[in-house]
Amino acid sequence: MNVLPAWSAAFHGGQLATVLSLPLPDVRDWAFAGSTGAGVKVAVVDSGVDGGHARVGGISGGVALEVDTSAPGGFRVVPGPHEDLVGHGTACAAIIRSLAPEAEIYSVRVLGANLKGHGALLHAGIAWAVDQGMSVVNLSLSSKSEKLFAPLHEVADEAYFGGTLLVSAANNQPGPTYPSQYSSVVSVAARRGSGPMSLAYNPRPPVEFGAHGIDVDVAWSGGGSIVATGNSFAAPHVTGMAALVLGKHPTLTPFQLKSVLQAVSDNADPSPT
Amino acid sequence: MSDRAALRTAVAAVRALYDAAACSLALVDEDGSTLVYVVADGVGADEIVGVSLPVSRGIAGWTAMSGQPMVVSEVAADARFARDVAESTHYVPTTILTAPLFDADGEASGVVSVLDPGVVADREWTLAVLGTLAAVMGLLVATGDGTPGTEDQARLAALGRRVLDAVEDLGP
C-alpha cells in the first residue's frame, strides 16, 4: 500500500471526465488483438536491464552511457551487455515484456547506482535510441533541470518527427520535469486500481495518460521481485501497449499512436454529447 | 533545542504515535550516494545511529531514490530489504513504513522509518501522516543550524515544531 505519486491526482478522487476520441469501432481489438509486439524495437533508458531475469526473458542489445570527462561531450558510449545497477530498468523491461512478449528490448543505461544520472547522459540516451531507429522509448526518469529544457525538447522533437515514440513518466514529486512536460511525448502517471492493460486519458494535461502504477508486482535485481509504486512503473505499461499497437500497425506515426492510445482509454467516448 | 535534539524528539514522537518498536531518521549525504542514520528511538536505536549505507540499498534507500512513502508488510519477502543492516542492530522487523524528507529543491534529503508499528500499517492514514511528519522533519533539517534562509522557512519550521509537540502530547 502506498500513497499516490505526484501527478496521479488527475486520475483519482472522483469520476474521470469522459474525453471525446476518434470514432474508431472496436478500437481495442483493432489496436491490440493478436499482437505480440513482434518486430517492434523498444528501448529502456534507465539503470540497465538484467536480460537474464526470468520476467525479462532476454534482451536484443544495449549500450551504457558513462561519464568520461576526457571524452567529447563528457561521456563515453559502451556498447554491449551491462548489469542493472538498481533493478529499476529490469522492472520496466519486465512490464513491457509482460504486455508485448515478442518486442525487441534494448537497454540504454544512463543512471547510476543511486538512480541519479547526468542530464547529458539522459539526452545522449534518447538520441542514441532515435539514431538506432527505436520505435518506442521508455523513459521512467526525467530531469528537473531548466538547463536541459531546450536540449531535451530538441531531441524529443527529433524523435517525434523521426517516428520514435517517447513514453515519459512524470516525476513522483510535484513540479515540472523533462521530457514529460512536452506535447511531443506520451506522458504517464500512476493510476490506482487499474489493470495492466487499462488506460485513462487526462483531459487536463500536461500529464496525459494514467496507467497501472500503484502497488505493482515488478521484477527486481537478483532475479527477485518487489511490490512498488511510482509513475516509473506506469510508463512501461503504456510502452507495452504502444509496442502492441505498432506490432499490428507498424506505419503509425507518434501522433497517430497517441490518438489510438487516447481512443483505447477507459474514459474515451467517440460519441459527441 | 539543537537541531539534533529536535530530530530526536521528532522520531520519539513518531514512534509513540505509531506505537512502534522503533523509529529512525537517516539523512542523504551531499552527493546523494549515502544514507546516514542520525537519530533513532526504540529497539536497536543505539546500534543504528551512525550506520551508513548506499542509497541503492534497503527499503529506506529505495524511498530516498523514488521519493515515495511506502509500507512493506513482510520485509523478509522484499528484495530491497537490507537484512544485514537490520541484523547489526539486533532487531529484524517484520513491517516497515518509510517516508522521504525533501530539501528546498525537491530532492530527497532523508528518510524516516517506522519499524513494526502497533497500528494497522496498511491503512490510508499511516503513510499520509508519516509523509506529512517527514515534511516537517525536512524543515527541521533545513533550518537546523538556526539560520533559516527565508522568513517563510522559519515560520514553517516553527509550525512544524508545534505539530511535533502536539503529536508528542498524543503519545501514550
From TrEMBL, chain A:
Domain of life: Bacteria
Entries under Pfam families matching the protein: Peptidase_S8
Keywords: Hydrolase, Protease, Serine protease
InterPro entries referenced in this protein's UniProt entry, alphabetically: Peptidase_S8/S53_dom, Peptidase_S8/S53_dom_sf, Peptidase_S8_Asp-AS, Peptidase_S8_subtilisin-like, Peptidase_S8_subtilisin-rel
Keyword field contains DNA damage: no
Keyword Hydrolase: yes
Ranges of residues in domain Peptidase S8/S53: 37-263
Catalytic residues of the enzyme: D46 (charge relay system), H88 (charge relay system), S232 (charge relay system)
Similarity field: Belongs to the peptidase S8 family.
Protein name: S8 family serine peptidase
Originating organism: Nocardioides aestuarii
Automatic annotation (TrEMBL), chain B:
GAF domain boundaries: 2-155
SMART domains in alphabetical order: GAF
UniProt signal peptide: none
Recorded superkingdom: Bacteria
Protein name as catalogued: GAF domain-containing protein
Organism: Nocardioides aestuarii
